[in-house]
């Protein structure tokens, strides 16, 4: 079993790549959890027209942006990623709603 080092502790590209690969697996697992909430939303919302909520979308992106600032990572990059994530989540939720 390979020990995963923190970024600052890495001294080789193999260590960096092992850390990135583990993080990617963790991120996909977190995305699976997020999409499970989209399944729940599609089940709970009474009408398909309730899926898109621009105010909620803005809130989610603003929260991600604020967390990026707090953690010292590029807030614009995070905002762009979350724009894509939220739009993908909406599309997923619409498809889940249609499958009901």
TrEMBL record:
* Domain Chorismate mutase stretches: 7-97
The molecular function terms in GO held by this entry are: carbon-oxygen lyase activity; chorismate mutase activity
Q: Residues that bind substrate, according to the entry?
A: 17, 34, 45, 93
What Pfam families does the record tag this protein with? CM_2 (PF01817)
This entry's Enzyme Commission designation comes to 5.4.99.5
What does the UniProt keyword field contain? Answer: Isomerase, Lyase, Pyruvate
Q: Record's Gene3D superfamilies?
A: Chorismate mutase
Q: Which InterPro entries does this one have?
A: Chorismate_II_sf, Chorismate_mutase-related, CM_dom_sf, CM_II_prokaryot, Isochorismate_pyruvate-lyase
Output one GO BP term. chorismate metabolic process
Please give the PANTHER family that the UniProt record associates with this protein. Answer: CHORISMATE MUTASE
Q: What is this protein called?
A: chorismate mutase
Species for this entry: Sphingomonas carotinifaciens
Identify the taxonomic lineage of the organism of origin: Bacteria, Pseudomonadati, Pseudomonadota, Alphaproteobacteria, Sphingomonadales
């Amino acid at each position: 079993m390979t020990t995963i080092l923190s970024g600052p502790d890495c001294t080789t590209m193999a260590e960096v790549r092992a850390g990135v690969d583990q993080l990617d697996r963790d991120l996909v697992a977190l995305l699976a959890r997020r999409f499970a909430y989209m399944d729940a939303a599609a089940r709970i919302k009474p009408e398909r027209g309730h899926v898109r909520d621009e105010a909620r979308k803005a809130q989610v992106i603003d929260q991600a942006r604020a967390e990026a600032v707090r953690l010292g990572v590029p807030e614009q990059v995070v905002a762009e990623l979350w724009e894509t994530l939220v739009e993908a989540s909406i599309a997923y939720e619409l498809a889940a709603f249609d499958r009901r």
